[in-house]
């Protein structure tokens, strides 16, 4: 019956169907569901081992699909559903063991994927994903310091009394306690704030250094208050996906292989400014200001 109505209402105008943009979210915890509700795609697939909760989350999203931009929402504990259409470092070994299974499943059923890693410690797990998947490095991206940069803009804007969209700047390096604030790139409507205050980010009279500290500690504070973080990272990841699905070539600080850049010789994943488009990411040869001196704090995988 549905097919009859479809044929009466819809007249195909192209001989070949448009390839849909399918997004798979692995894990339906707080972060996974925040990503799910923020993402716009042709099809959203949820994967988790918790069958009852998984079905419940799928149904809940389906019931609200009138208000979403995703027309099809599916879920299964089987990774084949993707085929159609604490201190962060303490998480390492546990998550690596999980990734050894799930990454192979992703590549098996979705060999042409672009993978965005969100789980912490994100830089190390992005490296793990790259090695396990065998995908080209432009197809394996870590959320990295994208959310840190958003927080950076928010807290700077709050201090200035303006909207965050009018205040620009980025956080680079490791997504963790050694994040680097690029003060030389901070500007408000093309006005360099460091030119107005050359000591910005140091022990200056305006205490801008405190902004860096608050950014570094903000996730732990949210976790202390509500037990987890989810909404901000969900919105952050949705922004990364939009830049790729829409081929916007947006410049975002995300985690990628940095060997050979800024004198770094080790195979490590850290955040620096990248161009996100349909092909995944491409690296920028130059970024604003001095990047980081972090090599000694990062161990090889």
TrEMBL record:
Location of the Lactate/malate dehydrogenase N-terminal domain: 22-142
Its family remark reads:
Belongs to the LDH/MDH superfamily. LDH family.
Every Lactate/malate dehydrogenase C-terminal domain range? 146-285
The catalysed reaction is: (S)-lactate + NAD(+) = pyruvate + NADH + H(+)
**InterPro entries annotated for this entry?**
L-lactate/malate_DH, L-lactate_DH_AS, Lactate/malate_DH_C, Lactate/malate_DH_N, Lactate_DH/Glyco_Ohase_4_C, NAD(P)-bd_dom_sf
Tell me the route in metabolism or biology where this protein functions: Fermentation; pyruvate fermentation to lactate; (S)-lactate from pyruvate: step 1/1
**GO cellular component term of the entry, any:** cytoplasm
MF terms (GO), sorted A to Z:
L-lactate dehydrogenase (NAD+) activity
Matches recorded under Pfam families: Ldh_1_C, Ldh_1_N
Q: What is this protein called?
A: L-lactate dehydrogenase
Where is the protein situated, by its record's location annotation?
Cytoplasm
Residue numbers binding NAD(+): 27-32, 48, 95, 118-120
Q: What is its EC number?
A: 1.1.1.27
**What is the purpose of this protein?**
Interconverts simultaneously and stereospecifically pyruvate and lactate with concomitant interconversion of NADH and NAD(+).
* SUPFAM superfamilies in alphabetical order: LDH C-terminal domain-like, NAD(P)-binding Rossmann-fold domains
- Work out whether the entry's keyword set contains NAD: yes
BP-aspect Gene Ontology terms: lactate metabolic process
Quaternary structure, from the entry? Homotetramer. Interacts with PTEN upstream reading frame protein MP31; the interaction leads to inhibition of mitochondrial lactate dehydrogenase activity, preventing conversion of lactate to pyruvate in mitochondria.
Look up the domain of life of the source: Eukaryota
Q: Which UniProt keywords apply?
A: Cytoplasm, NAD, Oxidoreductase
Q: Where is the active site?
A: 175
